[in-house]
Amino acid sequence: MAGTICPKKEECEALCLRYPAVPVYVILKLSMIRYGAVLTPAADKRLREKDLSFNTSEAFGLSYGSGPGTDNAMPGPVLLRDASFVYINWGEAYEDPYVIDYDPETGDFYLKERDIVIDTVSFVERPAFFDKKTRRGIPMASLADVRAQKLIMTTWRKCIFRDLGMACRFCAFFSSGSGEIEVDPEDLYDVVSEAIKERGRFSEIALSGGTDLTGRPPFTQESDRYIRQWQAIGRLFRDRFPAQLMAPAYPKAMLRRIYDNTGITSYSANLEIADRERFAAYCPGKAHFVGYDTWLGRLEEAVEVFGPGNVCTQIVAGAELAGRDAFSSIEEALESNFRVCERLASNGVVFLSTIWRPHAACDLGYVPVPPLEYYVRLAEGLHAIRASYGLHSFDDDYRHCGNHPDSDMERTDYL
Q: Phi/psi at 142 (nearest 5 deg)?
């Protein structure tokens, strides 16, 4: 496709013909994440206005914009016309990105390749609670991230693996930043109490954070902290409420204690890399302190606590094809991911993918990204495996999270 006017557009069109089971907007979403996007001055100006301006801080060390009056405000997720959410790493360097423009006369945003319009898009509006502070005076915008209908709060802002020099090689979590490490449970209560006043905006709450191994057995202090935090939030609800804990692979007894003492309904322990050998190479901290077989076994045991379909894990898709320990071919990578997805799905665990992007603060650094077709085939295959076992990612579908292209495809299950 060298020399064509719109190579990314033509690539998407060719993949739509080759993989008709994958919706066009899933392919466009994958393309946008893979190639990235930049804003024209007009779009940048519009997105800094109060109704669209999002977080001023970001847990992965990204920053967007500078200069007087900008406050490093970051745009929120892009919305495609089918309601798909697209999360762009604003502030990253891209080789051949899409362009997002804004026309003040029509009030519309346009996704472009070079000067040719691909489609109209929109942006998620700034939540009203972002303008408020907790009773302790903490800006709520600094405590919460917004997915489709999921309110996510990072409640432990460091990772012991980074301190030990054993961070996941594709991860820049807490590679920069300052402020309190532990989020006070009462601040979480304040954020949620304000967020749920925006009727229809949020239908699930999620807590996550960096890994804390302290206590005997390991993770005792971390799990106790999550119990305190969930109990504070739980005062806003009568019984169980749609809530997901994103945390390491805990022993079953620890998970049972969390479940019995909080109102949460879902648990996610992210494997990150599905292949055994590459798990050890790319996730040295997880491999050393938990181990591959133990991680998988604990995911399956978690189903006994939370029930089938309420336990999930995700991979950082594409990282397994990057760097010195990468698979030698796309076929090998797909086979590995599908094999582990099949095993977990047969035991009631939802296996999802997110899309890896190179990041300067990661050990992998800026290395080539796999071709778009890899991600299309991966999304199609993962969705098909889960569907064959009757599994649906209700906690991480397009309505809740919007960060998993393969779960976006579940909308086709009801046709």
A: -85, -10
Q: Which two tokens stand for residue 72?
A: 């490093």
- 174 confidence band (pLDDT: 50, 70, 90): low
Q: What ranges in 250-371 are assigned the alpha helix state H? A: 252-261, 276-282, 284-289, 292-306, 330-345
> What is the arrangement of strands in the sheet containing 243-246, beginning at the earlier edge strand?
145-146, 150-156, 204-209, 243-246, 266-268, 311-317, 349-355
Across the range 13-30, mean pLDDT stands at 97
Does the global pTM surpass 0.85?
yes
Strand order in the sheet with 108-113: 37-39, 98-103, 108-113, 116-123, 78-79, 85-86
| Residues 102 and 15: beta-carbon distance below 8 Å | no
In 3-state terms, what secondary structure has residue 201?
coil
- Nearest CA to 124 out of 154, 97, 155, 151 is that of 151
Say how far apart CA 133 and CA 213 lie, in whole Å.
Answer: 31
- For residues 383 and 408, what is the distance between their CA atoms, to the nearest angstrom? 9
| SS3 state at 239 | coil
pLDDT in tens, 307-357: 999 999 999 999 999 999 999 999 999 999 999 999 999 999 999 999 998
